[in-house]
Design goal:
Elements (H helix, E strand, L loop, with lengths): L10 E6 L2 E2 L5 E3 L4 E3 L10 E7 L4 E7 L4 E5 L4 E5 L5 E4 L4 E4 L3 E6 L2 E2 L6 E2 L5 E4 L8 E8 L6 E9 L7 E6 L6 E6 L11 E7 L9 E2 L3 E4 L7 E9 L13 E4 L21
Parallel strand pairs: 8-16
Antiparallel strand pairs: 1-2, 1-5, 3-4, 5-6, 7-10, 9-14, 11-12, 11-15, 13-14, 15-16, 17-18, 18-21, 19-20, 19-22, 22-23
Length: about 270
Amino acid sequence: GSSSPFPPYVTSTWTLDGNDISDPNITLGDYTINIDYVKREYSGKLFQLSTTNGVGTATENFTLIVQYGPEGDGEDHTVYASIGDNITLIAATSVDGNPFPFYGWGIGNIQVNLTGRYSSDSVGQLTIENVMAEDFGPYVFGTHNGIGEDFTIDVTLTEAVIPSSPENISFSDLTDMQITLMWNPPVTMGLPTLSGYIIDIYPPVPANVELETNTTSIELYKLTPGTVYNVSVRAVSSYFINGGERSQYINFTTFKGGMRCVTLLITVLCFVVV
């Protein structure tokens, strides 16, 4: 617009990174600019004021720095480990803020010093070597930059407990090539709680026969007729992926080839003779 009532008239133009400004949150004056709602995307952008009166042109550049509080992508969660493990706690894979926040780890109300068995290769991660009993507990990853609310994530390190053996394994529906196995859950479900079971069978069955289940029974197919098999069951969890204690072994012998049970259905037709 024009800001001088006398010639040569002065006109002013605002641009954002060289483009016209059309954002409804921005009000342009001759020599001022008002932003009703600051957007983070404007941080580092170049606002330029150009003034001209027909004789010459003058420009002024302004770079807007938008400050905002700490933020990240993590969520509160629990991690399981055993004594002697090397474990990395991951509170967040990315942390941001302007200015970039200070950050650190604590367990309870005690700050974790990144020395000895404790280290951090990246923001939001804490590595503990040779986990000891005193390492289990509630950890907090905290950030702070004085702008807005702090960003914190709670990570609880819990000692893993191996599930005990499934109980009372039995079978039914035995034929020459298949069988149904059944069992009861273990007394100790473990931590984290068990997620399923693995079947151990010898002699081995074909590779495409499913030997894992999340229930307490399974049907096995493609067995060899007239063969003695030994079977046991292990409970597994997300930590103990190879399973806990094995159940007792049971053995069974498949029927010799060709044995089947067949039910014949006989239909009797009745006619009325006229």
